[in-house]
Design a protein that fits this description.
single chain; alpha/beta; six-stranded parallel β-sheet; 17 strands
Length: 353
């Protein structure tokens, strides 16, 4: 089969790789029908995630069909259409028992496309399949369903839930990429008074407004002053960091009100200055985290019933054979206008959905 292989910082290729096989009785092998590219994959290609060894197939989000399972798999069987979660869960360790699957110590956590071969291939081996794949509702297309492998549970759990969004809050989302936009959509579930989106890109701010942001502001246009004006000088109740660079995190700490919450979602590849000389007196709560995906089944049901309008997040589709081109489009989103890129089988042309 073919897969997208990381060969070191700045080096990757869509090339022939060994077919996956059942290694453990809890494994499943899934034929990949739809896969997407994550901002974390771009961080890997830049060398920001040194744990990823050269020779690893990237990717941790997919929709597909179960091909075969190990003898201990009970919840899915060959022929089932499933979502492959970005997080693998053993189900037995202390963290899994607390639903903190992202911190699994039994051989799970974020391993696909990180510590083992991932989903950007024709087939993928999924360890601990009973807890690591989700049967899909019939009403969801592959293109919509794949968004629930990572970005929606990440935005909801690490951004909205960890940020403790409440009715009447002012929520500022810094970064209107896919996870930031999913944060806007899921923050709306809690009836905030207003959602403010901050980004460098006018196109992404337009998308944020379409998806529920009440106010949008370019990062260079003094968002701190705007948020202060909207809140009688207090600042935002919740600020969600969805970029992953020092400048955006430091902006979040300036946007938050005394007693407010900063929920960091972005993947950081460089050190960030924490200005405790200003923050120590403000009673600010800062949270970080890797998604646990405990919310995935609920979010899938909401999407299938029309409760989450997800389709407009996908801007480009490609056949899997054009993986390298898809990476270029996604990596240069400022020029291409890409939000979420989805790849599937077949030889169709790329383009905006």
């Amino acid at each position: 089969m073919k897969g997208f292989v990381f060969h070191g910082p700045g080096q990757s290729a869509w090339e022939q790789v060994p077919d996956p096989r059942i290694d453990e009785p809890t494994d499943a092998v899934v034929r990949v029908d739809a896969v997407t590219i994550c901002g974390t994959d771009l961080h890997i290609l830049k060398g920001d995630v040194p744990e990823v060894r050269p020779g690893t197939v990237l990717g941790h989000e997919a929709v597909g069909e179960i091909v075969t399972t190990g003898g201990d798999v009970r919840t899915v069987r060959p022929g089932d259409r499933v979502l492959v979660s970005c997080i693998t869960a053993c189900g037995r360790c202390r963290f899994c028992r607390d639903r903190a699957y992202g911190q699994c110590r039994g051989g799970g956590g974020w391993i696909l496309g990180h510590r083992i071969d991932g989903t950007q291939a024709e087939y993928v081996r999924v360890p601990y399949a009973d807890l690591s794949v989700h049967p899909l509702p019939g009403g969801l297309t592959d293109q919509d369903a794949v968004l629930f492998a990572d970005i929606f549970p990440t935005a909801y759990e690490v951004g909205v839930v960890s940020g403790d969004v409440r009715p009447g809050d002012t929520v500022a989302v810094v970064g209107a990429g896919p996870v930031g936009l999913a944060s806007i959509l899921t923050a709306r579930l809690y009836s905030p008074e207003r959602v403010v989106a901050v980004d460098l890109s006018a196109a992404r701010l337009d998308a944020a407004r379409r998806l529920g942001a009440d106010v949008v502001v370019q990062a260079g246009d003094a968002p701190e002053e705007l948020v202060a004006d909207l809140t009688d000088g207090l600042g935002a109740d919740v600020v969600i960091e969805a970029v992953g660079v020092p400048e955006s995190f430091e902006m979040c700490t300036r946007l938050v009100r005394p007693g407010g919450r900063v929920a960091n979602v972005g993947v950081h590849g460089r050190p960030v200055t924490l200005h405790l000389e200003d923050l120590w007196i403000k009673n600010v709560t800062i949270t970080t985290g890797l998604v646990d995906t405990w919310s995935t089944p609920t979010l899938l049901r909401m999407a299938a019933s029309g409760g989450l309008p997800v389709g407009s997040l996908v801007t480009h589709t490609f056949p899997s054979a054009r993986m390298e081109e898809a990476y270029e489009v996604f990596a240069h989103a400022a020029d291409s206008g890409a939000l979420k890129v989805v790849l599937s089988g077949g030889q169709g042309a790329a383009g905006e959905v």
